[in-house]
Each structure stands twice: as structure tokens, then as C-alpha cells.
């Protein structure tokens, strides 16, 4: 059954259709380097966590899901647009034109990098960083752009008087929040996050996670988050996918996977966390 | 005395070079690039730039374009910052005199080819004329996105949001769009183009110009063009529209109020004056005014 048929059938079965359907996605640089045979659906408002050890293919998978790395085989079907025109806009990610894929990346999607400066422009002020996406989709009114930048800065708890400062003068936590604001300004439906709390100290992490959790509920975002931190996964993710040696070894609800791990590797992973 | 002048003139004649300095194969290659550039207004066409007998940054791109299009029937005018008598202009004019037997002029309307650095003449150019620009950096996105692979992709996919980020930064920092030269333009509703470092005062002249505009970047080996009567729009915001420079005084020599003025320092005491940067235009006006005076005397 092709992925298209699968999605169509799924639509008949239930009202709610997945935002993104991934089937047998494979990209291997070498045996067990990359990811193989990954399949899942993600629904609007759902947070999917991908956990696993370093080198298990998490980040490569995320890159491929977000349209930045062509897979060897398999398919990704994404529902473009909103509301009633969704069905007509079912698109296979790597069959659409590159221009459309890049358009998706700066409108309906967001990518939050582990190192905030990878996702920010270092020589552009905080306001300009947030405004870039707006201008990319054709907004040409300075006042409007600035208003929206100010609103988002407030939302991610960055003082408004820093709006014209360069992100290089920000602390790590502020940079990460700025990166999130920059991604959310076009009201995306799907956000990809790669270790968003890596490299932050625990109190800043806690604040950031709190913020993310609030935004996810408030904006009904679907999020695919890659992390090796099980605490982050437990806090944010509704569902978990555990990866090891480029394969998905276990999937399920977060609590279920973490409290009753079935696969030996997951058991090892869970028991490795410091207990108090 | 006269004999001596002839000797100097003969010494300047060069031999051993093809007409127009470049060999015919190179000219054909450049002409092909030019045709492509004219067919896709604003698109940067790569070409095999040659070593020219002048350093990069002195107009090697413009000279190659001129060399590829000049013929015996052409009349060449060369300006540098609007002036016919500056080093760069004089040496390029002499160069084509010796390698292409070109007839040259300083009158804008008499010229069939005008090679320019940093200005567009004040007089409205007419159909059939060709304006050749010398371009130092052809890529308008360079300072925002340093990767050439990425900027090419941005041009190809028409992803130009980032260009407005630069304008946004200007307004946020200075309260207005602070680009005064090399002001980016949107050509034919498709490509964003660097108009070479002309003052933004000249930008409106590019729009719907009757003459053909060719741009040559020698160091970066790119050629681009704006065919006659093409829409050229300067980028701006709805609430911060594009504006050109203004002066609160007229040209100190000819009294023109609608030209681009250069500030000239007169002495060590801080005295200065503003004069037209277009020497030909200023001269014409002076002549006309003197004529008026003579008629009054009669």
C-alpha cells in the first residue's frame, strides 16, 4: 500500500488526519549510520520525542523529516495549508519542487537548532531576526513587522529594550528563546527541535521547557523533538520513539515507554538516568 | 613642436593586438554572455573574464564589455564619478583610442557607448545608446549571505526576504534606509540586482530607460544587463518609501538645482563648494548661460 493510499484510507476511517505521515523512511551513509525503516504519523498539536544515544541517527532523521536531507527511500506525506483545503494539498515532501519545500520551511514549519547561532543571523538585530520570516513571505510594512517582533520578544520573555541588540550579545538561554520566537512568528504548524535545551544550565532549561510547554498548548503546535535527555522527553513529549543503531527499537506513549520499557536498550536507557 | 606631437602620437599606436584589444574568440564569448544577460534582465551571467592591462577595481569588467561591443562607427564616452577628466576616465578613453581607433567624445548625447563608473549622466539617454557600468561586487545579497552557492539558490528560487532584513536593520538603527549608493533594485519583477555603486539619486533613471544598460564585473567575472524600457524598482517599505538625496543649495558653477552635487574642498580653511558631478552637463549649462550673456550684450 502506498503512503498516499494509506493516508486516504485513514481519512475515511476517522475525522482527524495526520499532519505528517512517514513510511519506511531510510537514509544510510553506511550500515547502521543514519536511519532505516522509520514509519510514524504525527497529528496536529502532538509532541513526538525521538530519544537515543549519540550516533543513533536522531539528528539525521530530523534533518530528513524537515526537508533538508533527501532520504534513500521511503516517503513523507505532509498536509499543506489549513482547514478545508487540506485534503487537496496533500504533498509528498521529496516530490515537490525545492522552492516549495523551502517555502514550507519558512512558513508552516520551524527548525530550532541545538546551537542557537546556527538558526540565527549573528549580524542582524533581534528584531530583524524575528522579522526575517515575515519579510520572506512578503510583508513590506516596517511598523507592522516591528510590532510583531516586539510582541514575540515579550512572549518569549526577552526585555523589549534588547530589540535592536545583536543576538551575539545575548546569553545562551536568551539566544535559544530568540530562535524559538523567530520560528514561531509565521504561526507554523510543525516545529522540529534538535536538543533545544542542550548546553543550558538546569534553571534556564526549566524556564525554557516551561515556555515551550506553554507555547505548544497555546498554539496547538505539532513538535518533533530530538533529545538524549529523558527528563526533557518526559516533560514535553506525548509519544516517544527510541532509536538505536539507526533503527527504531521501541515506540509508544511517553509514560508507557519510560515506566515500562520493553526493549533491552530502552531498559538500559531508562535505568541509566540518575535516581534520587 | 608639431613634429614632436606627431612622434608621441605614433609612439602611442600599439601593434600586435587584435582590434579592441581582446581576441575574437573572447569577444564572441562575452557577446554570448551579453545576449543571455539581455534575455534575462538582472540575472548575473558568468563569463570567462580575461586579464586586462589594468588592475582589478579599475574597470576591467566594463572595459571587457566595451571591447566586445565597440566598432569603427561607435563614439565612446567614458566617465568616472560623472567626470570626463579624471584619471580612470582619461586612461580608458585613451586605451580605446589606441586599440580600437575609437572616436571619442565628452558630449553625452553624441556618444553611442558610454562607459561609466559610479554615475548615470544627468541628460536623459536616448534609444540606441549603450551605457556600460563598471561593477565591483555584482552580488547584492553578498553582505547578508556570504555563501555564493546559497545566494545563487536564493536568486533562482526568488527568496528575497533577506534583502528587506537589511533595510529593516537600517530603519531600526538610523530611522531611515541608510543606503546611499549601490541601492538594490528589483528588475522586471524577477531579480534583485546591484546597480553598481551609483548614488541612489540615479536609481530612478534606470527605470524604463531608453538606452541599453550593460554591467561588467571583471574580478567576479559576471555580466548582467537591463534591456531598454525595463521596469526597475528600488526596494523599500510601505511606510518608509524610497527617496533620493536632496541638497539645500544649487551647483556653485552652473546653478543647476536638480543634479547630483559633489562637495569640493577649496582650501585649508574649511571652505568648500558644491558642484555638479556630471562635468559635461555642467559645461553645457555654463556655455548656454554665457551665450545668453553674449546675446544680451548684442
Describe the structure.
The complex is a heterodimer of chains A (276) and B (298). Chain A is α/β, with parallel strands linked by helices and 276 residues long. Chain A is built from 11 helices and 10 strands. In chain A, a hairpin with a 2-residue loop joins β1 and β2. In chain A, α5 packs across α6, α5 runs parallel beside α7 and α6 packs across α7. The radius of gyration of chain A is 19 Å and the shape is globular. Chain A starts with a helix and ends with a helix. With 298 residues, chain B is an alpha/beta fold. Chain B has 8 helices and 12 strands. Chain B has a 7-stranded mixed beta sheet with strand order 1-9-8-5-4-2-3. The longest helix of chain B has 19 residues. The N terminus of chain B is likely disordered. Chains A and B meet through α3, α5 and α6 of A and α6 of B.
Set out the fold topology.
The complex is a heterodimer of chains A (276) and B (298).
Chain A lengths: L2 H11 L6 E11 L2 E10 L4 E6 L5 H8 L7 E7 L10 E3 L5 H9 L2 E4 L3 H4 L6 H11 L5 H14 L16 H13 L5 E5 L7 H18 L2 E5 L3 H7 L2 E6 L2 E7 H6 L4 H9 L4
Parallel strand pairs in A: 3-8, 3-9, 6-7, 7-8
Antiparallel strand pairs in A: 1-2, 1-4, 4-5, 9-10
Helix pairs in contact in A: 5-6, 5-7, 6-7
Chain B lengths: L1 H11 L11 H16 L5 E2 L13 H10 L5 E6 L6 H14 L2 E2 L8 E5 L12 E5 L13 H10 L3 H14 L10 E3 L3 E3 L9 H4 L5 E6 L4 E5 L5 E3 L26 E5 L6 E5 L2 H19 L1
Helix pairs in contact in B: 2-3
Amino acid at each position: 500500500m502506498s503512503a498516499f493510499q494509506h493516508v486516504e484510507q485513514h481519512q475515511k476511517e476517522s475525522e482527524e488526519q495526520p499532519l505528517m505521515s512517514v513510511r519506511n523512511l531510510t537514509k544510510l551513509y553506511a550500515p547502521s549510520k543514519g536511519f532505516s525503516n522509520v514509519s510514524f504519523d504525527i497529528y496536529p498539536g502532538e509532541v513526538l520525542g525521538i530519544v537515543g544515544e549519540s550516533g543513533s541517527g536522531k539528528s539525521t532523521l530530523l534533518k530528513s523529516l524537515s526537508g533538508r536531507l533527501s532520504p534513500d527511500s521511503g516517503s513523507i506525506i505532509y498536509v499543506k495549508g489549513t482547514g478545508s483545503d487540506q485534503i487537496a494539498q496533500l504533498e509528498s515532501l521529496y516530490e515537490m519542487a525545492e522552492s516549495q519545500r523551502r517555502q514550507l520551511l519558512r512558513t508552516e514549519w520551524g527548525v530550532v537548532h541545538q546551537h542557537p547561532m546556527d538558526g540565527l543571523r549573528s549580524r542582524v538585530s533581534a528584531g530583524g531576526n524575528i522579522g526575517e520570516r515575515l519579510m520572506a513571505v512578503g510583508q513590506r510594512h516596517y511598523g507592522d513587522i516591528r510590532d510583531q517582533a516586539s510582541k514575540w520578544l515579550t512572549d518569549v520573555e526577552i526585555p523589549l529594550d534588547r530589540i535592536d541588540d545583536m543576538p551575539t550579545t545575548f546569553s545562551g538561554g536568551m539566544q535559544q528563546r530568540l530562535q524559538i520566537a523567530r520560528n514561531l512568528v509565521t504561526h507554523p504548524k510543525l516545529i522540529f527541535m534538535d536538543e533545544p535545551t542542550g548546553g543550558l544550565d538546569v534553571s534556564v532549561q526549566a524556564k525554557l521547557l516551561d515556555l515551550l510547554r506553554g507555547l505548544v498548548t497555546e498554539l496547538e503546535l505539532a513538535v518533533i523533538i530530538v533529545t538524549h535527555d529523558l527528563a526533557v522527553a518526559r516533560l514535553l513529549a506525548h509519544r516517544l520513539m527510541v532509536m538505536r543503531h539507526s533503527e527504531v527499537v521501541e515506540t509508544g506513549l511517553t509514560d508507557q515507554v519510560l515506566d515500562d520499557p520493553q526493549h533491552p536498550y530502552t531498559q538500559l536507557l531508562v535505568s541509566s538516568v540518575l535516581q534520587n | 613642436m608639431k613634429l614632436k606631437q606627431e612622434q608621441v602620437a605614433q609612439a602611442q599606436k600599439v601593434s600586435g593586438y587584435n582590434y579592441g584589444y581582446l581576441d575574437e574568440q573572447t569577444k564572441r564569448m562575452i557577446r554570448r554572455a551579453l545576449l543571455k544577460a539581455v534575455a534575462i534582465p538582472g540575472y548575473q551571467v558568468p563569463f570567462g573574464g580575461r586579464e586586462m592591462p589594468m588592475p582589478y577595481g579599475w574597470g576591467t569588467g566594463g572595459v571587457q564589455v566595451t571591447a566586445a561591443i565597440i566598432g569603427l562607427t561607435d563614439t565612446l564616452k567614458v566617465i568616472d564619478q560623472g567626470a570626463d577628466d579624471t584619471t580612470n576616465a582619461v586612461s580608458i578613453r585613451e586605451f580605446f583610442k589606441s586599440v580600437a581607433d575609437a572616436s571619442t567624445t565628452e558630449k553625452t548625447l553624441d556618444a553611442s557607448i558610454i562607459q561609466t563608473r559610479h554615475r548615470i549622466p544627468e541628460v536623459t539617454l536616448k534609444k540606441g545608446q549603450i551605457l556600460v557600468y563598471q561593477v565591483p561586487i555584482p552580488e547584492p545579497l553578498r553582505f547578508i549571505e556570504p555563501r555564493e552557492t546559497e545566494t545563487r539558490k536564493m536568486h533562482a528560487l526568488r527568496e528575497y526576504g533577506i534583502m528587506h532584513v537589511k533595510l529593516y536593520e537600517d530603519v531600526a538603527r538610523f530611522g531611515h534606509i541608510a543606503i546611499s549608493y549601490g541601492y538594490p533594485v528589483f528588475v522586471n519583477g524577477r531579480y534583485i540586482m546591484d546597480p553598481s555603486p551609483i548614488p541612489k539619486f540615479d536609481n530612478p533613471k534606470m527605470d524604463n530607460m531608453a538606452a541599453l544598460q550593460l554591467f561588467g564585473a571583471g574580478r567576479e567575472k559576471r555580466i548582467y544587463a537591463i534591456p531598454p524600457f525595463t521596469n526597475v524598482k528600488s526596494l523599500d517599505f510601505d511606510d518608509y518609501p524610497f527617496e533620493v538625496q536632496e541638497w539645500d543649495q544649487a551647483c556653485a558653477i552652473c546653478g543647476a538645482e536638480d543634479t547630483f552635487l559633489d562637495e569640493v574642498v577649496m582650501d585649508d580653511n574649511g571652505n568648500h563648494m558644491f558642484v555638479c558631478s556630471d562635468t559635461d552637463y555642467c559645461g553645457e549649462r555654463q556655455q548656454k548661460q554665457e551665450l545668453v550673456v553674449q546675446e544680451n550684450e548684442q
